[in-house]
Amino acid sequence: MMEKKKTSKPLPKRKSSNAKTAVTKTKLTIVGIGASAGGLEALEEFLSNVPTPSVCAFVVIQHLDPNHKGIMPELLQRATLMKVKQAGNRMKVQPNFVYVIPPNKDLSVLHGLLFLLDPVTRRGLRLPIDFFFRSLAA
């Protein structure tokens, strides 16, 4: 007599009731760069060596004469494929961009937005790099 073979069916895959879709929220990295009035060459060399596209945003704070017309964005654009912009008030910071402080302003950052402020001290010792770095650290 022949014995009947039992065939086993594969069990259906169970879906886990507590399975969650992983959502990763990437945090923007903002790199602050301070330079003296003579720092153009160093800024160009640095930016020309940043791989693009970049996951970072770069904010350039340079000590300049407050009455000097700012052409820094145009000068730095020659050195990088990233878009270079003059910082604007309440401007959203985005990766793969370079933001440059405008003349005669202080700059701060909060919750991914740039804020332009009139300098506290009109004449004498102004420290726009320190001012921005403090806000970036906070």
Molecular structure report:
This protein has 138 residues and is of the alpha/beta class. The chain has one domain (29-137): Methylesterase CheB, C-terminal domain (Rossmann fold, 3-Layer(aba) Sandwich). 18% of the residues lie in helices and 25% in strands. It has three helices and seven strands, in the order βαβαβββββα. The chain has helices at 40-48, 72-77, 128-137, and strands at 29-35, 56-62, 83-86, 91-92, 97-100, 106-110, 113-117. Strands 1-2-5-3 form a four-stranded parallel sheet, with helices on both faces. The longest helix has 10 residues, at 128-137. The N and C termini lie far apart (85 Å).
Beta-strand residue fraction: 15-25%
Number of helices: 3
Q: Which structural class do you get from the secondary structure elements? A: alpha/beta
**Integer count of domains:** 1
Q: How would you sum up the major sheet?
A: 4 strands, parallel
* CATH architectural category: 3-Layer(aba) Sandwich
**Overall mean confidence score, pLDDT:** 84
Rg over alpha carbons:
26 Å
Helix content: 10-25%
Strand order of the largest sheet: 1-2-5-3
Structural key phrases:
single chain; 138 residues; alpha/beta; Rossmann fold; 4-stranded parallel sheet; 3-stranded antiparallel sheet; 18% helix; globular
Fold topology:
Blueprint: E1 29-35, H1 40-48, E2 56-62, H2 72-77, E3 83-86, E4 91-92, E5 97-100, E6 106-110, E7 113-117, H3 128-137
Parallel strand pairs: 1-2, 2-5, 3-5
Antiparallel strand pairs: 4-7, 6-7
Short overview:
The chain has 138 residues and is an alpha/beta fold. 18% of the residues lie in helices and 25% in strands.
